[in-house]
Amino acid sequence: MPEPAIVVESLTRRFGEFVAVDNVSFRVDKGEILGFLGANGAGKTTIIRMLCGLLSPTSGRASVGGFDVAREPEKVKASIGYMSQRFSLYDDLTVTENLSFFGGVYGLTRKQMVPRMKWALGLAGLVGREASLTAELAGGWRQRLALACAILHEPGIVFLDEPTGGVDPISRRSFWDLINELAAAGTTVFVTTHYLDEAEYCNRVMLIHNGRLVAGGAPSELKARVIRSPMFEVECDRVIDGMEVLRRQPGVKDVSVFGNSLHVVVPDADEGQRLIREVLGAQGIEVRRMAQVLPALQDVFISLVEPRSGGRWPEVAGHESGVGGQRSVVGEPRPGDGR
Amino acid sequence: MNLRRIKPIAVKEFRQIVRDKRSLILLLIYPALLMVLFGYALNFDVKHVSLAVLDQDNSRASREFIRSLLHSEYFDLRGYLSRPQEVDELLDESRVQAVLVVPTDFGVQLASGREVKVQLNLDGANSNSAAAVVGYVTAACQSFSGRILTDLLLRSGRNSISLPIDYRPRVWYNPELRSARFLIPGLIAIILLIMTVVSTALSIVREKERGTMEQIIVSPVQPIEIILGKTLPYVLISLVASVVILLTGWGLFGIAVRGNVLLLYLGMFVFLMGGLGLGLLISTLTHSQQAAFMISALLTMLPTIILSGFIFPIRNMPVVIRLVSYIIPARYFLPILRGIIVKGVGFGALWQSYLFLFGFAVLVILLSTARLRRQMA
User: Do residues A44 and A121 both lie within one domain?
Assistant: First the structure.
């Protein structure tokens, strides 16, 4: 069994009375892609900051790349790469100037820099645009350049804090291809996101809510474990009304809005299907289509988080503060909207 | 601390400064511009005072007396008055600064060896220049009186005569008493300070605003490396700007450096480090570029102009204000500038100022490093 890249044991961080991270434990293996999911303010950033050696834990311990984050933050910093959600580059510098700056602060020698620079330009797809000012690059290129800057020094572990915010879907897709390549080459990737569809690309996901780990596991495993009962996707009119009547129905385990349809979890497939038609029909709600579907990660999270948070995914409710808050999207639909 | 990591920061900072052509031109040309502006506008020399004369006597003696006054470049005669009422009008309307009144019996009284009263009316709204005018006229009257007295004594039979005191003022360093010689060294300090503090105050805040600071603090770079890396390029640019300033002072105002230029630049370097450190400290204390700009302008401009001894002697200030002046770095830089540029003195006369400047630079750099370290945690 190989030494894990990240080990976190009972990690806790308080800010005064507020417990930002509450007794969190997990491990990440080498070459694994770990997705960290949660609303802004859930504690993702605090955990990342502790793991990057920027913030010391109140209690518990964490080691990254074999170094204790509280005792050897400098060694931790040297062995990781970090890319922030704003992919912070210097707009007034060129592509190569940005690369050589970040290479320099990580202590790359001139000799090391040449092949790494070439590699990074290839990775970012910016060969031929070395002399372009970063300000002139489109979102997707900037994002890949930011990643290239963050891993120029070949860190074994990379932290990506919401790396795909504000980037178009095609660029997001190709960005995830890059992340997969990195992981395949042995780099451990720790990524936070609130795009739930992205979480599906991860080997393992962890859901953090109010500072605690709520669930963790491979996406498929989580779905199977959390939602054991059959789930139906119901396309109907008056979606919100439909959700409310179904929610009051004893034979229905869970209802949520998914786009302009409903996801309904019932104990038994046949019985449930009949019940849904009957209840909605009684309210004069027309069911256009109904089919049993496999639960998506979003269903998992809603069912996990809902009882605790009063049914609102905090990010959508917008009562959490944070940089990403203004532009955050949780999947396409807005679950819990109808309440 | 690792020089290998300071270098990329300094290189990056330098590239950013040089790339921003407008700011660069501003950094290099603006000081010279300020110099021209201040150098010509700030002038305490009281010359060419506009003077009117009411000569009620109009005798040979009175004309001679008036001529002795107008002989210098201190007064410009605006005309002769005919009626005493005109004195009030001219002063009220600020058409002249001073009116000299010579009484009707001036010549007669003098000839008979009696005392005559001569009146000078002057506009005291500007106390500074009024005091200078009083001084000039007093001196002129005394020398005129002295001449009459010696004439009188000579005529009374003594063949060699002189006044008891032979007063010979000898002004050192600035024999023509030009205020430019006094002001320009101070201007250099003020211009350099404003420039450096403002430009560096913006530099860390800008990185905070853009989010690049976050990217730097996760790297193994130490706060002191960031601070030094950011300071050095600005020191370089400011030193170039100071050459421009010195050349402007020499070309336009004839102020040449009398002392050791190397010693001057040593002081300049230490002073700049202090100013830049102060800018960075402000930078770590603020969150927006506007706030950083405001605070640095407030902290540098007025205190430096007022409390550095640039114009107003610190010696004459109340104790409390004098104590405040001790934390103004320009207070220590001014003696160095004046000492080396105007007087041409050496390190022996100035070492204390150097020491204070050095202390200030170390203090602000350490403080801003500590602040940055706290922010990075």
Answer: yes
Q: Which of A5-9, A319-323, B250-254 is least confident?
A: A319-323
A151 and A92 housed in the same domain: yes
- pLDDT tens profile A79-123: 999 988 776 889 999 999 999 999 999 989 889 999 999 999 998
> Is A335 within a domain?
no
A-chain residues near B212 (CB < 8 A): 88-90
CA distance B341 to B131: 28
The second-level CATH assignment, the architecture, of B49-155 is 3-Layer(aba) Sandwich (3.40)
Q: How many CB pairs under 8 A join A and B?
A: 74
Q: B220 and A55 in contact by Cβ < 8 A? A: no
Q: Which residues of A touch B17 (CB under 8 A)?
A: none
Residue A195 is assigned to a structural domain of this protein: yes
Chain B residues close to A104, C-beta within 8 Å = 4-5, 7-9, 11-12
Domain membership flag for residue A231: yes
Please check whether residue A104 touches B, CB under 8 A: yes
Closest residue, chain B, to A73 (C-alpha): B220
Interface ipTM: 0.72
Query: Are A206 and A213 within 8 A, CB to CB?
Result: yes
Chain B residue numbers with beta carbons less than 8 Å from the beta carbon of A92 are 16, 19-20
Give the residue from chain B lying closest to A88, CA to CA.
Answer: B212
Give the number of domains in chain A: 2
Residue of B nearest to A97 (CA): B12
The CA distance from A159 to the nearest CA of chain B, in Å, is 10
Domain ranges of chain B: 3-43+178-376, 49-155
Give pTM, 2 decimals. 0.73
DSSP state of B178: -
Q: Of A218, A240, A260, which marks where a domain is finished?
A: A218
- Percent of chain A past pLDDT 70, that is, above it, reads 89
CB burial of residue B178 (10 Å; 0-12, 13-18, 19+): middle
Interface test with A, best of B218, B224, B374 (most A CBs within 10 A): B218
Least confident of A224-233, A236-245, B361-370: A224-233
Using one digit for the tens of pLDDT, what is the confidence trace for B19-47?
988 878 878 888 888 888 877 877 777 88
Q: Please give the structure tokens belonging to residue A201.
A: 């690309």
- Which of A182, A201, A218 delimits the end of a domain? A218
Q: Tokens at residue A268, please?
A: 């038994």
Cβ–Cβ < 8 Å for A82, A161: yes
Distance CA B137, CA B143 (A): 10
Chain B CB within 8 Å of residue A270 CB: no
Give me the amino acid identity at A334: R
In chain B, which residue's Cα lies nearest the Cα of A93?
B16
Position A6: which residue type?
I
What end-to-end distance do the CA atoms of chain B give, in Å? Answer: 18
Domain hosting residue A132, numbered range: 6-218
